[in-house]
Amino acid sequence: MSILPQLAFLLVFAIAGFIIYKRVSYLKRNIFLGKGETRNDQPEKRWKTMLLVALGQQKMFKRIIPAFLHLLIYVAFIIINLEVLEFIIDGITGSHRIFAPFLGAVYGISMNIFEFLAIAVLVSCVAFLIRRNVMKVERFTKPEMKGWPALDANLILIIEIILMFAILTMNATDQILASRGVEKYLLLDGLFFSGFIQPLFVGMSDATLVFIERFAWWFHIVGILAFAVYITYSKHLHIFLAFPNTWYSNLKPKGEINNMPEVTNEVNMMLGMATESSAEPPAEIGRFGAKDVNDLTWVNVMNAYSCTECGRCTAECPANLTGKKLSPRKIMMDVRDRAEEVGKSLDAGGPGFEDGKSLLGDYITKEEINACTTCNACVEACPVNIDPLSIILQLRRYVAMEESGTPAQWNAMFQNMETSFSPWKFPPTDRFNWADQVKNEETK
Amino acid sequence: MAEMAASGKSPEILFWVGCAGSFDDRYKAVTQAFVKILNKVGVSFAVLGPEEACTGDPARRAGNEFLFQMQAVANIQVMNGYEVKKVVTACPHCFNTIKNEYPALGGNYEVIHHSQFLQQLINDGKIVLQGGGAFKGKKITFHDSCYLGRANDVYEAPREVIKALDVELVEMKRCRTKGLCCGAGGAQMFKEPENGKKDINIERTEEALATGANAIAVGCPFCLTMMSDGVKNKEKEHDVKVYDLAEMIAKDMGV
């Protein structure tokens, strides 16, 4: 027998592997365009968060229907990948259903479970397509979803549906061939779901069926490899990045905004206080706050690549709900798109960050970041613990401290605080006046 | 505080009044109510009076880290000077800032929100509620402040305080972790909102009114302002009152 199919398979597998390797290196480089940040304290809590939030999908269940449909696809993805292992071994060795003889009856049961999951994926993907395109669920139709993001989402769902059809077609034709006693094909103990589509194929000749079966087999495995490559260009990256993303979650109270030690040094100097680091040479004077992706931290950028654009953040954002331009999802998409732009430019020998553009201004406007109430609803809503607020605050810091570009009313508030130590213009000596009434009443 | 320190006394708690508590005409009543409760119960406390400055919360959230740290460092110097150990405040923004953000600048205190402190006093039997007071049997809804709830995971203390009043606590659709902001956080209190189709406090007030509650309870000066404005905008200010938790307890205690 010809070993041509085996060679072809190895070649396809190697090419896919190489492309994925290149893509992963590229994505890693882009994520580390962000500044360094060490976040590996409390490892136990981090593993636990990852297990609960990423593996256990804990936060998905705030919206029960999509959570259930998503869970079916997720479980199917993990379990059907076991079958892909068999595909790979079969592809390399030229065997057919290599696990069947070892597993006996268990193999048939497993195949039935796989088929059930394939059906579950089909149903879920169709439901998701309906939610996006027919019901037009509001969070999927926001302005930032126009064009590629909407197409990307639909493509993923359609590819998954086609891949599931390939599995069912393969099993249906495979079993007809087995029942006819064609060489190499093994009769399994009744495959329930693919049995339903067998009538489509029973009238065909052995040769046609072998062709369809082989075509479906190749289509499925090549499809999976191609999909794996596609994912690296897509919002679908969340299936992998959700894990590191949740591991590197912010474990501090959500209300806490990180301190800027470089400012502390200057404040202490102004107040004539000794600074701990005064003996050290002054650190390289960077920017205060963030203007572009390289001012953010690598965790911020990883957050952006982990975002699957579900829009639960935006659906909970009080500013967005009341018609303001701010959308936390758009903040994440903008960070990713800018990182992509810079990354591609660098690879092409272009100017990278020095292209005259920046995240703030060309992607995200002040009107957007100024509308944020820092309420943490977006952070709470994200199923994979993305933190859009951290980015918004860093951009605000740049606007306030590098550009002095905050709204006039905020500037007035700053001025009141500088002169009267209160955001309102009251004399500090009046701070205790409220007590007069209490004292009067008590002396009466 | 200065008087107490001068006479060598150290109070059990420092009551951090905050800027709204000191200057906002409506919210001063909350400060007064809380102080009356403390006096009635006999808690030894002090306030910083004119030595208190804004915690810097709105400056930091508007991006002005310099101004925030100037305020913070000055406050920490004052509090450390008096050897303050325990701080109670009615403002979730002050609470969050002193509790979570001052440690990085050398200010380490036990910080408690007044809802938690009131709950402790009720649980310890130090506050004896008359029940059957002004609120008995009334429907009350509680509006979660972002800086108490999501920011610091304090959801139950204010609810326990309300329930102690023998009232019917009704929840809004968006409550606890899903609570909708009043619209004032992140320094929004100090500027007009960006263009949109609606103000956030109106959206939230509509939700609160939809519960059919007789009163809206809050635990934050900004929420108090925003919800009161919202109720006024809906011309319901005669039917639905907005109260801080401390006001409700003080009213029931008859102080």
Envelope shape of chain B: globular
Order of helices and strands of chain B: HEHHEHHEHEHEHEHEHEH
* CATH fold-type name of the largest domain in chain B: Rossmann fold
User: How many structural domains of chain B?
Assistant: 2
Oligomer: heterodimer
Number of helices of chain B: 11
Helical residues, percent of chain B = 40-55%
Query: How many beta-strand runs of chain A?
Result: 0
Instruction: Sketch the major β-sheet of chain A.
Output: none
Strand content of chain A: under 5%
Amino- and carboxy-terminal Cα gap of chain B: 23 Å
Rg from alpha-carbon coordinates of chain B: 18 Å
Taking strands numbered 1, 2, ... along the chain, how are they ordered across the largest sheet of chain B?
2-1-3-4
Distance between the amino and carboxyl termini of chain A: 108 Å
Number of strands of chain B: 8
Q: Please tell me the overall pLDDT of chain A.
A: 94
Which features characterize this protein?
heterodimer, A: 444 residues, mainly alpha, Fumarate Reductase Iron-sulfur Protein, Chain B, domain 2, elongated, B: 255 residues, alpha/beta, Rossmann fold, four-stranded parallel beta sheet, 11 helices, globular
